[in-house]
């Protein structure tokens, strides 16, 4: 594979992976305007975010078997088409319920890009390269929060919040064209892969029986849910408590996203000297310490607006150390069931993200405390699972390397 071809594939896979970040981040500055136009509250608008995350979680379980049965591209075409139609539906929403329903449908379509991108990493690159490739994808994904809320804030102020969803439809149409003309096929269709419920559940069960997959999916999914608490809570914290405008909030979100861009690059350097599981441990310990300090400071009233921004930045610096390494380790044992494994891992991540964002809404008390408590709780739970489960995952990996375990 030439260098140019390599980076073109990374760019396309990264773009597919950004569908959900853009769908989540770009409309955040419009929360107050949406609430006003639809005659509802910001906490009700937050439920459209929760609905999106639930849709991603459920949809990935659908696409995993489809990607294994029909190959990577045809299910991807269908998903992107559904996303485009639902985005237009979001722009035309005239009630909170319609917006929530369209966001759910939007997620069902958009999650095809996320599942297909992860499965194609496993298809197109050797196992030894996957952690590096996932780091590149995390970098592309991390750039989107710099762009999406800022652009969304200005678009909302200039053209109204429906323009955000129409823009998402156009962007996804461009991605669909790129997939058709430039993305390799990856794993071919497997006519022998049954889509009957019993067979699909059997494939999922085979994946879940793998201790390496289970441990690192739990660790990565729970720890990686911390930003969803930040995403769900930050519009209210900064625009209601600190009275910032849509544009100002967009710039703060962009500044904080720089933290998530830097850490994947640091991960590239660390991978030269450390194993992925060692880097995961380092990232979780770091975030737990910063998170504890963050919760204590918010509870005690140590921080103003700038202090909160700084401590959030420090916390998010550790995010790029856990996610790419956990993804690489969880998918490493699979080839035949890579689509199903990717779907299960992604579904769990987004399901936890939905619970986390919902928890921030339920615990809403007019302060930043619910947001930071839920963020820190994710990393604490992640590190506990790591310490209790890492031994069994390591034993399985060593057995696999010794040839005692067959690749699935």
Automatic annotation (TrEMBL):
CDD domains for this protein: MFS_MdfA_MDR_like
SUPFAM superfamilies registered for this protein in UniProt: MFS general substrate transporter
InterPro entries: Efflux_drug-R_Bcr/CmlA, MFS, MFS_dom, MFS_trans_sf
Keyword Transmembrane helix: yes
Residue spans crossing the bilayer: 45-64, 76-94, 100-121, 133-155, 161-183, 213-231, 251-271, 283-302, 308-331, 343-363, 369-388
Biological processes annotated in GO: xenobiotic detoxification by transmembrane export across the plasma membrane
Similarity comment: family membership: Belongs to the major facilitator superfamily. Bcr/CmlA family.
Protein name (Swiss-Prot/TrEMBL): Multidrug transporter
Protein species of origin: Rufibacter tibetensis
